[in-house]
Write a structure and sequence with these properties.
This protein has about 240 residues and is mainly alpha-helical. The protein has a domain at about 95-180: S15/NS1, RNA-binding (Helix Hairpins). It contains seven helices and no strands. The longest helix has about 40 residues, at about 195-235. The radius of gyration is 41 Å and the shape is flat.
Length: about 240
Amino acid sequence: MLLNIARRTALRCSVGVLRESAQPACSSALLSGHKVSSAPARHYARTAKKKVQGPESQLSDLSPAMLKLDYDAVPLAQTTDDVVKRLLSLELASHSEKLALKKEQLIAKVQRDESDRSSVEVQVAILTARIRNLQEHLLKHHKDKANKRRMLMAIDKRKKLLKNLRLERYDAFENVCEQLGITYTFPPEYYRRATRRWLAKKAFCIKVFQEVQKQKAEQKLKLKQSAEAAETQTASQ
């Protein structure tokens, strides 16, 4: 018993001495400006984050050597030196200038003649270029509510134009969808917001219909049995 008490007191004294001896070393290290760390620092190499690539842009097929829309039909722009041609090309063009050229390319695919600028097919081509541009913008800026609203309005307008074109001229409708790469989906025949009251009413109506059908089946079975019984009675007589 006395031996155990003596050992414990000796251990406590040794721990106190070690703490007192470690304090001046730490204070001297802090005064000299060196950082004191309990464990050695380990610096591991971090893997590079892979960038998530979105769908291909509609402007990716435009060559940088192509001239801008305003200078494409000017013959002098074809014979100028390389510096001026580079200034007039799409290499240094803005996004709006590239989008205008892409819009003209889509219009040229579906327009009826060279002077056609207001037909349903041309309106669908213009809306398609605008919708795809807004979709690419919203992939980068998904919180832009104003442009999201503009995109949804343009989609609704294009749906109405395609619906009317499909009813009036089906061959032109098929050509527009094929040339512009549009997939037309039919709208639902009936749509109603599913509230809890409406769902409860619908379930109750279904239950009532099933009960009525069950009663009708029982009545038909009784009539059939009574008819068979009458036939057997007449046959026995």
